Amino acid sequence: MKKKIIISILIIVSIIEVALFLKNKENNDKKLNNTDKFTQKIEPLSKKHAINILKSEYGDYISVSEDDIKIKGDEYIIDVSVYIEDDEPHEDLGDHEHEQSLGVHKINMYTGALTMPDESKESK
């Protein structure tokens, strides 16, 4: 009689363990599928948003249009320049502006991370 009770308990415990294992495996498969769907839905930033990132860094004086932005891999490549106005007007020229290049900047299309040109490389 004791053997039958012990065997019954072992069978019940085994069935519960198998059920829990299958349920856990199913949940893991769902998590993997949800992760795959999430990574497929990521869209790159627009070129307009890349310009806004530059404006937040340098102000509204930058002179970059969407046509100036090149795509290389996962990055936008942008040659950034700014307009600087003279404080004092020149007698011959009146109001006068200068355009100064800030170098080629890179913006990651998916994270928006801005990579500025390395000045140490330019001076060598």
Task: Tell me about this structure.
The chain is α+β, with helices and mostly antiparallel strands and 124 residues long. It is 45% helix and 23% strand. The protein has a 4-stranded antiparallel sheet with strand order 1-2-3-4, covered by helices on one side. A hairpin with a 5-residue loop joins strand 3 and strand 4. It is rod-shaped.
Which structural class fits the helix and strand makeup? Answer: alpha+beta
- What is the straight-line distance between the termini? 91 Å
Rg result = 31 Å
Low-confidence stretches: none
N to C succession of SSEs: HHEEEEH
Count of DSSP E strands?
4
Major sheet characteristics: 4 strands, antiparallel
Strand order of the largest sheet: 1-2-3-4
Helices, by number, come to 3
- Please indicate the percent range of residues in DSSP E strands (runs of 2 or more): 15-25%
**Helicity range of the residues?**
40-55%
Could you list some keywords that capture this structure?
124 residues, four-stranded antiparallel sheet, 23% strand, 3 helices, alpha+beta
Q: How is the secondary structure organized here?
A:
Layout: H1 2-40, H2 47-58, E1 70-72, E2 75-85, E3 97-108, E4 114-115, H3 119-123
Antiparallel strand pairs: 1-2, 2-3, 3-4
Provide a brief overview of the structure.
The chain is α+β, with helices and mostly antiparallel strands and 124 residues long. It is built from three helices and four strands; from the N terminus they run ααββββα.
